[in-house]
Fold this protein.
Amino acid sequence: MSRDPSSTMRQVPLAFGPEPVLRFDTFVPGANAQWEQVLMALLAPNPTMPLYLWGPPGSGKSHLMQAAASQTQSFGLRVAAFDLKSPVPWEFDEEARLLILDDCDRYDRRRQHEAFRMFVEATTLGVPILAAGRLPPVDLPVRDDLRTRLAWGLVYRLVPPTDEQVRALLRREAERRGITLDDEMMAELVGRAGNELVPLMELLDRLDRYALSSKKAVTLALLRQMLAEPDEI
């Protein structure tokens, strides 16, 4: 009997409209010396070779998983994604063509059990697996069988981009949208979101939508007006 996973499986949405910001070509490799190898593994996921990414917050793990999910969905395929916020029990969608396991370093005992089940089901069905956490597999505080499986494929450490690289990418994305970010506007955005790329990109997207809805040019005054209002879009 077929199962309806909609109540338990988190579907990964395409980010920020028709052209997602979190794409492989918008990732800042920074000091990641093995970036070309990582990118090849992400572009052509191998069902016999799980990929585990680890690094501190801001290193780009979520960016790359979202990009991988978006790429898979762009082919009309389904993605099964689970993280710390996914309610248990988890159910594997047998039509999924990519399994994503995020926050692996913070799973409690029950989520460790669920992650192990998802890993086994995906492997049995020949579904590629992309997992991530803040720690390398050897240091993960999880059950041994799950730790072993997360470590048996490709394991890459991600290094966070510098503040300068983050701001350069934000300016590039703004220019793509026809927005010019001067130093004052950049300071306002960083003051709200810090120097982490994902929240900055989310603010930029919100600003773009706000300007379109208000039919006004993007200025420092408009940015401050937007930041003073709750985000209801």
